[in-house]
Amino acid sequence: MKRKPLFLQLSITMTVLVTFVIVACGIINYTQLERYYVREKVETLKDAYDVIDKAEMQGNLASDAFDVTFEKLCARDNLNILVLGKGEGVLRSNSSTDFATMQMNELYYEQQEDNERVLLRSDLYRIERRNDLRMQSEYLMLWGTLEDGSPILIRTALESIRESTKISLRFFFLIAFVALLISIVIILIVSRKVANPIHHLTELSLRMSNLDFDARYESSSFSSREIDTLGNSMNEMSENLEGAISDLKSVNNELQKDIQRKEQIDEMRKEFLSNVSHELKTPLALISGYAEGLKENINDDEESRNFYCDVIMDEAEKMNRMVKQLLNLNEIEFGRDMVEMGRFNMTELVRGVLCANAILAEQAGAKIVFDETLDPACVWADEFLAEQVLTNFLTNAIHHCEGEKIVRISYLLHDELLRVSVFNTGKQIPEDAIDRIWEKFYKVDKARTREYGGSGIGLSIVKAIMDSHNQKCGIINHEDGVEFWAEFDCMLGKNDCTPKK
């Protein structure tokens, strides 16, 4: 069953409560108001008796000075009073003397007594309810004697009490009906004002449950201190929850990245094992085959045996060189081979690398172009690692040189950086292979790489070295060839390359 809104519940509850109170007051008035009037009239009769008795004791009852007091007493409380003297003469009266005297005689000499109609009894007087058959009305009567023995009769009509009661009830219910209508209007307004902050908090909680953390509670003039406290707590909870979810998302994002990195590492590991296995398979097969040939003495002549031994030694050297390159790459990538920064002349370094690879260039028929007259270019780097970079660039250019077979080495100074470029004529590198060419064992032309004994590790070493220097390297395709470049920290305008202490 769907519950009613708080505003409606408050309105109905308070309306029912007010209605119940009004109806209860009406019932009490209807059933008890006359009795209450009668009790009040009994007290009024007693007070009037006391006033008259006191005046009689002081000897003022029959005096003219008591006239005003007596008239006020009778008019104010709607009383008929008769006081007789000891000699049966009338001392005071405000009604028909003959009728009052006759009624007093009836009271004194009436033999039957209805105890249920006696309201109060004392040694000197009694108060009771009496019916006047002639007037068809009911009275409250006090009759008896004063302290000096003078007979007294005080009466008041109950009909006026009943009329006053009816008028009071009619007026009460009229006022109650108007008050009920006004109360309902006020209840609706107040209930809405009271329920609105709670309704607002409910909406906030729903928005927060949907992870909408822009929702904020704002205090109003009708909100209570408790509502404000709850609203402020919800605001704090929203901020804390938003921060927690933000942290959780950050952690989850990092976890996703870690998972992706782990998957990439796994893939790289599998690919690495596959590549290493592939690269070692051919040399091992050759070594095994030629070793078996030697063992079986397939060729007895010394020249053939020497050829077999040369092949075995050459393939073993290839495997040894590849293992060294892998170890070197591993040292650089994991930071075990610390970079020793120093200032040196790049021009001198290039000359040294050219001299070391002159025989390789001559065998390949490549023409190396380098301006020997360049000013000294001083850079900050690890000289040994920088030499590896240039050596790998140069040997790679020589092996892939085609057409005019020109290898050109050049400089470019910019933003305190020296870009060293190695260009070779030949085929361009496919666009989809440019980003992958720095990966271990990746080969654009596998047949050609296998021809000169390349392992596909050289450019990976270059990338690792440049990353360890926090510098960049790259590839540029030209119409007639390919350019590899690497950048080194350079101090422009200073050609003094003497190492600083």
What is the topological layout?
Elements: H1 6-58, H2 67-77, E1 80-84, E2 90-93, H3 97-109, E3 118-121, E4 125-132, E5 137-145, E6 151-157, H4 158-209, H5 225-296, H6 302-333, E7 342-345, H7 346-356, H8 358-364, E8 367-369, E9 378-381, H9 383-399, E10 406-414, E11 417-425, H10 431-434, H11 446-451, H12 458-468, E12 473-478, E13 481-490
Parallel strand pairs: 8-10
Antiparallel strand pairs: 1-2, 1-6, 3-4, 4-5, 5-6, 7-9, 9-13, 10-11, 11-13, 12-13
Helix pairs in contact: 1-4, 4-5, 5-6, 6-12, 7-9, 9-12
Which keywords apply here?
alpha+beta, seven-stranded mixed β-sheet, 13 strands, six-stranded antiparallel β-sheet, 16% strand, 501 residues, 58% helix, rod-shaped, 12 helices
Written overview of the protein:
There is one protein chain. The chain has 501 residues and is of the alpha+beta class. It has twelve helices and 13 strands. Helix 4 runs parallel beside helix 5, helix 6 (302-333) runs parallel beside helix 12 and helix 7 (346-356) packs across helix 9 (383-399). The longest helix is centred in the middle third of the chain and has 72 residues, at 225-296. The chain is rod-shaped, with a radius of gyration of 62 Å. It starts with 5 loop residues before the first helix and ends in an 11-residue tail after the last strand. The model has no long low-confidence stretch (mean pLDDT 77).
